[in-house]
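Protocol step 4 of 6: structure prediction from sequence.
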Amino acid sequence: MKSLLFVVNEVGEFVELSRVALVAKSQGYVDSFLFAQPGYVNLQRNRAFCRMNGFQDYFPGKKLQLHARVQAYREQERQLENGYLPNSLRMEQPPRHSPFFRWSVLGLAMLLQSPAILLNRLQRSAGNFKEKKRARKFLPYQYAKQLYEQLQPDLVIFGQEFPGSINALLIKLCNRDGVPTLIIPFAVGTTKEMVESLSDKPDYEVDRSVMNRLAAHFYPQWVNYYAGKALLRLPGRNILILEALELGPEHPWLPNNSKVTCIAVESAEMERYYRRMRFPNSQLRLTGAAYDDLIASAKLRLPEVKQELCLRLGLDRDKPILICAWPTNQFGSRNTPLEFSSYEQLCNAWAKALGDIQQHTEFSVVIRPHPVTDPDFLTGILRPYRLDQRVTDIDTLELVPISDLFIACVSSTLRWAISCGIPAINYDCYDYGYTDFDSAQGVFSVKRYGDFSSVLQQLAKNPSAYATARQAQQACAAEWGMHDGKSMQRILGLLGELTGSVA
């Protein structure tokens, strides 16, 4: 059986990679997950998913055993009736030792333990605090290398690649050993996103420090220019370390730029983007995404899904549906002044605009909160606008195809609406300035609340404006998704090709 190692750096990656892992397991692959970062937010929840589905899971800090030792243990395990037989029953009798022997063993154990106790005390002292912190910083790299050597996977799969992640180390090890690597992207990523997110953070400015200037001078590929500033993709010290270890990408400002074997490209639109950014043709395989098949399935069940939603929320089945992917709290990610001073004010504005649509148009408003949203907080926001009973936990992938209008904030879910030919509003309320969806004429990108409210009212109240937007969205829908129900089949075919197996 061929083994796959899925590497997860961010929570969003796990959703898409877990879909692939489930189908891969059904085809005979052995799946393992590495949650690469210390403090990974959803570790407990995602590990529970792995246990329920028979996946091995690993994270920095979880003890690793030598591969040969594991094999020896498993050989012994096979003789113990799947955990029902204690190993001691296989012994004729436990070994018996003299009192002198037992006390000698105890003394030896205490003697051997003393240096460890002393080291532990030293590490707790203030003088070693920085060294201990530095060791924790490099732990993910050490752990990933050890895990790779232990598992010896036939294929390593990532949700993305970005400078400074452990992915570059794993790709380097795989290329050394002739092991293929694959990126299955979980989100739309562009250079625009990078410069927007870093342009307001002084630590990334070339002129910030001597270290930054040295990194920019010796490694100019790490420099980019935006908002009247010379920016580094990472702080200078990090760049110097990565370059010394030969772990720096050729184009640090390009998401997924790496020496990975293949990228499973999710749509024709993204393939055009990769080619424009000069990715090698040999890296790109147009497969579609795992979520494409879920959307295709939901489209085949539109009447049933809509009926379920209407029954749950008490909606009129004959009215059009507006789906809102509720925005998360991202105030901490921006240092620039925003239109609203707090997340609560922002949410009240969204609720007011949606409440007006619910009350004065034919649209039924349905709200799909992000899993991290506090339900009590959201209920308090929505109740004054009579929207607190319009919240659902139905998968967004099933909701998008039944919607007639879709709203989100710079979310990858917008590409699902585009691929379904559904008009959408991208309310960039955190002023990121991303232009990822500008080529889709049925997406209306706005940054200010007044524009958001105006466009929303126009699409909801003006049938002609809505029809024009829907026609424009449907004209480009096929470029943004592959809804033939065969995307996972193509991904499995790529897994089989890379591992040399028949999937």
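Step 5 (inspection) to follow. Residues 191-245 form one domain.
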